[in-house]
Amino acid sequence: MGRIRILSDQVANKIAAGEVVERPASVVKELLENSLDAGSTTIRVEAVSGGRRLIRITDDGCGMLRDDAMLAFERHSTSKLTDVKDLLSIATLGFRGEALPSIASVSRLTLETRSRDESTGTRIEIAGGKMMACQEAALASGTIITVRDLFFNVPARKKFLRSETTELAHIATLATEYSLAHPDRNFTLIHDEKELLAVTPAADLRDRIYQVFGGQLLEELIPLAPVERALPPEPGSDSPAGTLQLTGFVSRPQFQKSNRNSIHLFVNGRVIRDRLLLHALNSAYYNLVPSGVYPFAMLFLSCDYEEVDVNVHPSKTEVRFRHGPVVHDFVRDAVRNSLIAAKPAPSLPSSRVSQPAAHLPYSEFSQQIEEQRFESVPAPAPDSELPVFNLHGATPPAPRLDFGQTPGIPGEPVRFSAPPPAPPPASPQLKLRVPESHSALPPDAGYVPGTSLSELANLRPLGQIHDSFIVAAGRDGLWLIDQHVAHERILFEKVLRGRAEGKIEVQALLMPMIIELTPAQMADYNRIAAELNATGFETEPFGPRSIAIKAAPSAVPPGEIDKLVFEILEIADAELRGVSLEDLRRGIAASVACRAAIKINTPLDERKMAWLLEELAATQCPMSCPHGRPIALLYSTRDILKGFHRV
Ligand code: ADP
Ligand code: MG
């Protein structure tokens, strides 16, 4: 007798469950997607003990006919696909017909459902994949699925579940994300009988964000200008293959998160995790935020269904784009251009702290999840022509400005650092309750589209603090500008422009400067010499272990040239381990800019200050210095009025 056998459905389902049902949140995801596919307008999610004891989803969707309800638990039974061609353009969230049988095989599941076309409903009970009962029942139209004791028959799986709060955090993230993807529906999330999320239909995404996260977050966000791009035509055809569209919100650069949990990605209304889009987003913020920090983002990408393969992973959270590199660049440019157009002004940190941190519930969740959400996302397919990840890897640490001899503070170094991230939540208790007052966005809800840094051109400089920070008056309030980083940004963009156009002002040295290198530095030098010489340097090997510098960009003070070259070699050492030429170029430009920029503790007259502000206003990204620190802080009129208790 042969040794190969075909597994029973029961075993096959349990195996499939291993892929589909990783944790309670996977159950919630599958059931939520089914409810949305069923056209529900009101969806209620209940969980007990982080979803380990119970998960129940109640919807008012189309419900199932008696026969369909029985069939739904057969493997590969679905109402959403009929033949293989349908797989190429999937419009529904589900399509594999695997979720219900998989979930039923690792839990005790009850289905209660009634189709609008039948007068009575059906109640089915299944335990560990075995049908226990099936009877007629008097039910409202719609579907209720209750999943108890998840993994009761798979102890190995059960052991891998994390703490109740972590599992709940995953569930809450999912419910929140789907509520954002569908602002027109009612969503409720209840955990251990406490309501964590309750949102009613909102006019648009902005209103929904307000409902879920509160007005304070909204103030940090920039709406993406709606953009569209045609995809390249198919070979042999002239007409474009379709279009890409992107909408959503991203945070201004000063709103910084230490992990990627505040990045919400959607493709055709589906919640996904995708490295390609993450990378595109990071690239958009390149040189605008320090390394290792992440923005808040909510990106909704739409494209023709044929453009994206959602059948890549059993849990359908990963996708593959047919034109990956095009999608990547489209998203990067769309986000970057919106940031450049808005040039959002950072507010003085203190003015934020004084506000009650009432609406940061979401961050409480994301803290629980830490990095887990994106942990397991694989790198994009090797055929996508992407630069290597870790763009920020080699960004030099932000230089510490310290005032050695600050008058009045003898010997006390004053450190200046980026505004602190949002204050940590006061208690670890989870809550996502939407206060009554937040259920709708009042007309003057404090959503100010933010002051643009283009205003810098219209400021009146008043003087300097510590000969380091320019104080200026403007229409929108009082501004503080860090003169060193402001000049750094101006020069950074100038060097990059000059490099691109082959026009960098160069100073020839009277005597070539000879510097000695270690063998490793010499190797680095040989790799980057061409790029160095294209950025306004004239250097050549001078013996086996030294190089001669004959010229340098004219902005760099002669006394700093050798230090600058060593610094660039250091960047090269770190960056060449896997970062693109483009990044090396930016790294060199950032170093040149930093060396050449006006130092702190430098008195400036009014004319120079005005010049600096005008030049800064004319840059593309006056928001941050090339290392990601803020350049100008605004103490807005609104905050001034608040401070004087006039509002
Ligand atoms: P898929 O969603 O991939 O089709 P599932 O196993 O998740 O597979 O569901 C099987 C079928 O059960 C669906 O195709 C749908 O017809 C039906 N179904 C599941 N959940 C619901 C629901 N909440 N309301 C109506 N029908 C549902
Ligand atoms: Mg499904």
Provide an overview of this structure.
An 8-stranded mixed β-sheet has the order 5-4-3-6-2-1-7-8. Strands 9, 10, 11, 12, 13 and 14 form a 6-stranded mixed β-sheet that branches. Strands 17-18-19-23 form a 4-stranded antiparallel β-sheet. The termini are far apart. The protein is built from 19 helices and 23 strands. It is α+β, with helices and mostly antiparallel strands. α9 (275-284) packs parallel to α10 (324-342). Adenosine-5'-diphosphate is lined by residues 30, 34-35, 38, 59, 61-64, 72, 77-80, 94-100, 143.
Describe the structure concisely:
The protein is an alpha+beta fold and 647 residues long. Helix content is 32%, strand content 21%. The protein has an 8-stranded mixed beta sheet with strand order 5-4-3-6-2-1-7-8. Strands 9, 10, 11, 12, 13 and 14 form a 6-stranded mixed beta sheet that branches. The chain has a 4-stranded antiparallel beta sheet with strand order 17-18-19-23.
